[in-house]
């Protein structure tokens, strides 16, 4: 366990009690950065899944930074705008969140733009506006000035760019995983061209960061970059060139396999290390090595840790004695709280898989990750008598989150980013302890 929490409380209290100036902002020596993502659309969930501002508070003593997700880009003007004007501005959620700094004076709060929440267009036009912003200095200026106005006006401490570049395309499969992999290797080089101007966009993105930083710096505002899942860093980011103009780069090195991308191919969604017979660049370690190898400083690099699992339906022919399993039939059914096919929050998973011996009372078999390389999974076979569906779940749990934090410590990286608080066990339904993934990760740092 790091000394970060007692240190935070002690410095905050002594500063207030004696009326002395606050010590310099984090990161402090020997301490790690803990970025907590807050997905605001969680206020729309129902029942136990509904997340309100009061639910944030038990997490905040563990977080050094809070990221407010998400703002948007307006297509017509290419300016930064609130994604949900009604909630963010009229109902004042921006202000209510930045006002948390009164109670948590060490907390830095950033507004994030994009994050795959701000979706526009389809096919080649999908999220085109994120590339258009880059394409001329006038467009970049419009974006930067509007971002500065909103960030400063609402009392945020900076901006995070969760930039929506085109994702790498997974190859379709005919049958069987092995076949998929070998055919993939052959066609691999020719098929990944999704953005003909990728080289230009990479250079223009470096320019955007430089111009953004020079506008934000006089006000002491931070600039961070979140690399979204399946955005290929080797295509879009030049680590050495962007290092001077970012406070942190946050790697969302997860969701390599999702039922949306791979309906017939389930696999560990967020492995820490390379696994046999998989693409060598779809794991945490390879992402980290790429950024460090290209000259990005370890003390600015942050590893993202998901707080959810990905689910696939199993059909009657399912064979689950191997991973990846066979007999998959698209996204698993929506959870009672998250209500989206193919995804379950950690508490939705833990209530299914915990308890009992080999099989939980709810009929799930859980396989924990003794290798500390790949993450946990659990499954339930279909029941032909009752017509009940089978399901396969690959997920992060407190143990695998600790493993990732330990990796961060051993590599000397800056810290971790939880994605996100609202899918962690914020009510304490698994163990009565709130935020079990966040706490387990912080303990591993
Ligand atoms: C990322 O891009 C590089 C360079 O084009 C390519 O070699 C690599 O296979 C790509 N990775 C993925 C996951 O598509």
TrEMBL record:
GO terms for biological process: carbohydrate metabolic process; chitin catabolic process. InterPro entries: Chitinase_II/V-like_cat, Chitinase_insertion_sf, GH, Glyco_hydro18_cat, Glycosyl_Hydrlase_18. Residues 1-19 form the signal peptide. PROSITE patterns: GH18_2 (PS51910). Transmembrane segments: none annotated. It comes from the Eukaryota. Its main location: secreted. Residues 32-445 form the GH18 domain. Belongs to the glycosyl hydrolase 18 family. IDGF subfamily. This is GH18 domain-containing protein. The lineage of its organism: Eukaryota, Metazoa, Ecdysozoa, Arthropoda, Hexapoda.
